[in-house]
Amino acid sequence: MSGADLPAPEARPLLARGVRLRHDPVRDRVVLLAPESVIEANPTALAVLKACTGEVTIAAMAADLATRFGADRALVEADIRRLIADLARRRLVVLA
Fold it and tell me: N or C: which end of the chain has fewer CB within 10 A?
């Protein structure tokens, strides 16, 4: 995937209509619910999904997660951009 295919750091991801985070009592964890699917996310992806409010930029998400997890901000931002691009292709997030 080229950089041109990735959302800009200034993009503000938002969970798509009908997509939400919910606690699944069977799995005892938070999952992403979408029409006809349930998606489990690792802790880092879950942190990104929780920030998908349409108000937080990808760059701000990266700065926050890099601080929280003690990771390189540029690497975190690249990972978030790839994740958001994948979620957008699957119509689970929209970019504001």
Answer: N
